[in-house]
Amino acid sequence: MFSDPWSANDFAECVASGVPFLVAERRAVVAGYVVAHCAADEGEILNLGVAVAYRRQGIARALVERVLEALAGRGVRTVYLEVRTSNASARRLYESLGFGEVARRAHYYRRPVEDAVVLRAAIPAERGSAKL
Ligand SMILES: CC(C)(COP(=O)(O)OP(=O)(O)OC[C@H]1O[C@@H](n2cnc3c(N)ncnc32)[C@H](O)[C@@H]1OP(=O)(O)O)[C@@H](O)C(=O)NCCC(=O)NCCS
């Protein structure tokens, strides 16, 4: 799914630190997940993935919408993320959710080396009603 995936330890550290970490289940199978973190009024989506068999069913869109609500509930007003320049699927998803390009980071990724596009979205204040 990823050319340079997170390790089990990376996921374990996120769970232990209490950051927003949502999992989508289909018939007791993990179909997708999203991990974010935040500090003050800024948040970042750190990782998003949907298993190949479950793609194009709206799971990633639902996960991102829910994690934006979770971040809003923690007082976040601006959310950032990085994505590979070649990742057209993810870029289209994020753009449809209101993210726009604000910067590029040269050679940000490994395996293979590639630039990152930095995307940013503002969260409307009324979105933060649910504290997840
Ligand atoms: C990117 C990814 C998370 C999308 O997951 P998904 O559950 O299939 O996405 P959704 O079904 O919610 O699709 C939402 C939108 O994303 C875009 N999209 C998703 N897959 C796409 C594809 N293969 N081609 C073009 N657009 C695509 C579309 O705009 C889509 O909306 P639409 O179905 O109404 O056209 C998934 O392909 C994935 O896990 N990729 C590998 C990991 C990755 O790239 N993660 C993101 C790192 S930042």
Ligands bound to this protein structure: coenzyme A
Summarize the amount of helix as a percent range: 25-40%
Structural class: alpha+beta
Distance between the termini: 27 Å
Largest sheet, in brief, is: 6 strands, mixed
Residue windows where pLDDT falls under 50 for at least 5 positions: none
Spatial order of the strands in the main sheet?
A: 1-2-3-4-6-5
Strand content: 35-45%
Query: What is the helix tally?
Result: 3
- Large-scale geometry: globular
Order of helix and strand elements from N to C terminus: HEEEHEHEE
Number of domains: 1
- Fourth CATH level, the homologous superfamily: Gcn5-related N-acetyltransferase (GNAT)
Task: Tell me what you see in this structure.
The chain is an alpha+beta fold. The protein has one domain: Aminopeptidase (3-Layer(aba) Sandwich). The protein is built from three helices and six strands. It has helices at residues 8-17, 59-73, 88-96; strands spanning 21-26, 29-39, 42-50, 78-84, 100-109, 114-122. Strands 1-2-3-4-6-5 form a six-stranded mixed beta sheet, covered by helices on one side. A hairpin with a 4-residue loop joins strand 5 (100-109) and strand 6. The protein is globular and about 35 Å long. The model has no long low-confidence stretch (mean pLDDT 92). Coenzyme A is lined by residues 1-2, 32, 48-50, 55-61, 83, 87-90, 92-93, 96. The site of coenzyme A has 21 residues, from strand 3, helix 2 and helix 3.
Defining traits:
globular, 3 helices, 132 residues, 6 strands, alpha+beta, binds coenzyme A, Aminopeptidase
